[in-house]
Structures are given as structure tokens and as C-alpha cells.
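Quick start: what a row looks like.
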Amino acid sequence: MSKNMALGVTLAGAVALGACAKVEITPPHKAPLPTQARMLLGKKGMTEQQPIFIRIFKAESELEIWKQREDGYFHLFKSYPICHWSGELGPKRRQGDKQAPEGFYTVNKYQLNPNSKFHLSFDLGYPNAFDQAHDRNGDFLMVHGKCKSAGCYAMTDAIMEEIYALAREAFAGGQEKFHVHAFPFRMTDENMARYVNVKGQGRNPNLPFWQTLKQAYDYFEITRKAPNIEVCDRRYNVNVEWEGDRLDPRGACPRFRSGPIEPYTAVASFSQAVQTVPAPRPAERPPAFQPSMNLLPRSSPAPARTDDPIGRLIRQLAH
């Protein structure tokens, strides 16, 4: 080989090495949404930076991500399988019980952890005001990757990257915080009846707590909006409005007003009951109503028309 040929080969190799040296691997926390996820967003009329809302269901091992579209309502984007969660049905009470939390949690941007030893994660914010009012303790309760858990909700790494990207982009779009509602199961009437009793132990001690969680579940199923939740008198108060200073989670509750509840009827609800009910004509749109338990006002709402199928559904929910 001549000197010129050798020099050419050397230069070519150097250029190739230089090109390889410039290749940068995108870290997981900066990875873009997978193409399929972006295509699904487009198909559903959503964007990456629209606000998100998350629901978790233990018994079904599912995590849902909802997107708030321009109409102001949340629409289901995708349901993800939870790879692993530890403990059993019921809330977390103390450090070391290996229970995954149940309740209503809020995630701020600083709770995202790009350097988690569990690939990627975000902290749920346990213990929240309700947990603290009940002297519950524990920390670092997260949704994370690595598919192993001791009190957290663990996903596969690939799924966690997608969830993390959706949260990251929602914050980039201006969302200040997103809510996570963690339930023991899908809180239908049938499931509530199924878990009323514990085999061999009698009435389930978690039932009063779950009845409160069901109020928020029902509210979202009906309205497609996240309810306002306040903590006082050591309990969650769902869909309440008030004017005043910050509440004492252990102190007495002020005189709340019940927020308006207007069924979302632009599309069929995910509950089977609503799926069978046709949307009313504009002139027959039912008035705002109050669902069951603590959401009921002191006086009953005006009765709905007997020939109104939505009205019949409302009365079923209100009793």
C-alpha cells in the first residue's frame, strides 16, 4: 500500500471514529414519547403537554392516565399494567408494613426523580394531610420502574419511561401539579358489596374509608372532572367549597358548600349503566345533582322527570 493510500485509510478511520464519538445516548428521563404513544394522542385529539390525571387500581393492577382536552374534561388516554405492588387491599399505615398507599395524592414537578435507583420515579407525597392526621408514617412511596416493590407501585422500565414522559410534558405545558387517586379496586357497587366482609373475620374494617374513596370515584365517573378534596376532622371531604384559611386536618370542619355536579354526557360514560342510556335532547338536560353519602345536601334535589333516563340513573346514584 502506498503512503497516500495509507494516509487516506487513516484519515477515513479517524473521521469514522470522530462520528462515533459524537453519538449521544438520550438519558431515560429525557426520552421522547414512543411513536405509538404519540400516534395514540393524535388519534384521541390530545397533545403531549395537556394536563394529566392518574387513577390506580390495586386489585386490577392497573394505572390509568387521563388527559384534559380543550373541552375541559378528562378523557382516558391509556391504561397501563402495574408490574408489582406489595401488601394487600387497604391503606398504608406505618413504616415497614409494605403496604402500597390508598387515597388522594398530589404530585409536583420536584417530586419527579430522574436519578431514581428504580430507573425513573415520582413520589406520591405520602403521608399526605389525611395520613398525618391519622399518625401514619413512611416515606419514599413512589410509582417507579424495575418491576419490584416494597410499598410502591412498580412498573416495567419501558412503561415507566412513557409515564414519566407524559408527566414531564404536562409540567412543561404549564400544569403545576397533577392528582393521583389510588383505589383498592374499581369502586363499583358490585365490588363494594364483594369486599364488605373479610373471609373469616367479619365486616371489613376498611369499609368506612373506602366509602369515602368511592365518593371521589363516582364523582369522576359522572363528571370527568377531578373533585376538590379537603381534609379536616381527620377525614376526606369530597367535592366541597368554602372560603377561609388553610384547614387543620385534625380540627373541626367549617361549613362547607357542596360543589355543583353536572353529568358529562357528551360521550357515553365508562360505567355500563351510562353506556345504555342515550344522551338527552338539549331541552331535557338534567339539573345539577348530588350523589350519595357525604355528597348529599341537607335537602334533596328537585326530582328529575320520570321519562328521563339520565334522571333515573341519577336517582340510583343518589340512593
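That is the whole record. The longest strand covers residues 74-81. Residues 267-307, 309-319 have pLDDT under 50 and may be disordered.
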